[in-house]
Amino acid sequence: MSQAETSELLGTGRRAAVVIASTSAARGEAADTTGPILVDWLRGRGYDCPEAIVVRDGEPVGQALRDLLVNAAVDARPRIVVTSGGTGLAPDDRTPEFTAELLERQSPGLIYAMWRKGLESTSSAVMSRGVAGVRGRSFVINFPGSKGGVKDGIAVIDDLLEHIQTSIEDTTDHGPRV
């Protein structure tokens, strides 16, 4: 890709992070199947995105999110944080709770759109309890832990990502309000 093409990508000059909530992957008992998909997507949009952070379900997810969104210096915080996993009904599926406590504003319509997309192929899509929203200049969204759920989430969010990013950065001209 040429420098001119790279500079036109939305994520250019911005950081992103992926957090995978999977106890079995964190223990090395299973492969992380969703992190590589999410990292490739964000890199393809121009974001500087390291490999996924893989943690156990429960409190380690909260700590990873706090490290990215609170403990990091303001200018080092990622503009996009995508989680995968920990959104189901198991006792340690607490990704939405840890995310919600850090958000300043939620955007439930994005999750509803992901449910709708997921329902095209599986009725279990509505079991995902993810949340989405903003903290400072960071957009945070919880994707399900399945490859299908991640692909559905990307299909929904990808078309909206530029508008989400420019809105958070307040670089869009809303025009007159009528």
UniProtKB/TrEMBL annotation:
Q: Which pathway is this protein assigned to?
A: Cofactor biosynthesis; molybdopterin biosynthesis
What keywords sit in the KW lines? Molybdenum cofactor biosynthesis
Query: SMART domains this protein is in?
Result: MoCF_biosynth
Q: What Pfam families would the database entry show?
A: MoCF_biosynth
SUPFAM superfamilies reported in the protein's UniProt record: Molybdenum cofactor biosynthesis proteins
Residue stretches making up the MoaB/Mog domain: 17-164
- Parts forming coiled coils: none
Keyword Transcription regulation listed? The answer is no
Superkingdom of source? Bacteria
Q: Could you tell me which InterPro entries the record lists for this protein?
A: MoaB/Mog-like_dom_sf, MoaB/Mog_dom, MPT_Adenylyltrnsfr/MoaC-Rel
Q: What is this protein called?
A: MoaB/Mog domain-containing protein
Recorded source organism is Brevibacterium metallidurans
